[in-house]
Amino acid sequence: MENIQVAVRIRPDPEPSIWAIHDQHIFLNNQMRKPPNGQGRTTFAFDHCFSQDSKNTDIYSKEVKSLVLGSTNGINGTIFLYGQTGSGKTYTMLGKENDEGVLLQSFKDLFAKIEADLNKTYVLRCSYFEIYNEQIFDLLKPSSKLQETLQVNEDQKKEFFSERTHRIISIIHQ
Ligand SMILES: Nc1ncnc2c1ncn2[C@@H]1O[C@H](COP(=O)(O)OP(=O)(O)OP(=O)(O)O)[C@@H](O)[C@H]1O
Ligand SMILES: [Mg+2]
């Protein structure tokens, strides 16, 4: 597996979509955006393409699960959602009833794995930030303090850190 995987997901839209997905390719159907010679369609290839019909469980099982479980074996991983406003980042993260977001599915799998492993002690540290207009918000703060922005500092090793709320959850098996 490549170190970096890039996937695209199309949000359901009541309007006919200008995008079409076939196999792992996404096509731009809009005539105005055809290549100058008018031949063929503009095509972009990704590691995975998820159509309007995809569910958050599809995204989780193909893109997220292996990274999440890999972390319990000491492998660092990042899942980065990128897209214009309204494109479905929050929906993919949090989901809704009957379409659970990848965040909740991650926690369920992590806790199931931890509980099944009687030979190790795990400590999970969990922070939850929003970066918006170059300001950082700590989403684990009580709702009355959610508007407070976080100060970002640089330590002696030139690493950035920020004071934050975090919960430490530990499960210790005797
Ligand atoms: N796959 C999907 N299935 C059903 N509804 C979706 C899907 N993706 C997005 N939506 C709906 O589209 C709307 C916009 O999505 P969402 O809030 O997730 O966008 P966003 O990328 O987080 O935008 P912003 O950058 O403004 O936070 C929401 O009402 C959401 O419920
Ligand atoms: Mg959002």
Automatic annotation (TrEMBL):
<comment type="similarity">
    <text>Belongs to the TRAFAC class myosin-kinesin ATPase superfamily. Kinesin family.</text>
</comment>
<keyword id="KW-0547">Nucleotide-binding</keyword>
<keyword id="KW-0493">Microtubule</keyword>
<feature type="domain" description="Kinesin motor">
    <location>
        <begin position="3"/>
        <end position="174"/>
    </location>
</feature>
<keyword id="KW-0505">Motor protein</keyword>
<dbReference type="GO" id="GO:0003777">
    <property type="term" value="F:microtubule motor activity"/>
</dbReference>
<dbReference type="GO" id="GO:0005874">
    <property type="term" value="C:microtubule"/>
</dbReference>
<protein>
    <recommendedName>
        <fullName>Kinesin motor domain-containing protein</fullName>
    </recommendedName>
</protein>
<dbReference type="InterPro" id="IPR027417">
    <property type="entry name" value="P-loop_NTPase"/>
</dbReference>
<dbReference type="InterPro" id="IPR027640">
    <property type="entry name" value="Kinesin-like_fam"/>
</dbReference>
<keyword id="KW-0067">ATP-binding</keyword>
<feature type="binding site">
    <location>
        <begin position="83"/>
        <end position="90"/>
    </location>
    <ligand>
        <name>ATP</name>
    </ligand>
</feature>
<dbReference type="InterPro" id="IPR036961">
    <property type="entry name" value="Kinesin_motor_dom_sf"/>
</dbReference>
<dbReference type="Pfam" id="PF00225">
    <property type="entry name" value="Kinesin"/>
</dbReference>
<keyword id="KW-0175">Coiled coil</keyword>
<dbReference type="GO" id="GO:0007018">
    <property type="term" value="P:microtubule-based movement"/>
</dbReference>
<dbReference type="GO" id="GO:0008017">
    <property type="term" value="F:microtubule binding"/>
</dbReference>
<dbReference type="InterPro" id="IPR001752">
    <property type="entry name" value="Kinesin_motor_dom"/>
</dbReference>
<dbReference type="GO" id="GO:0005524">
    <property type="term" value="F:ATP binding"/>
</dbReference>
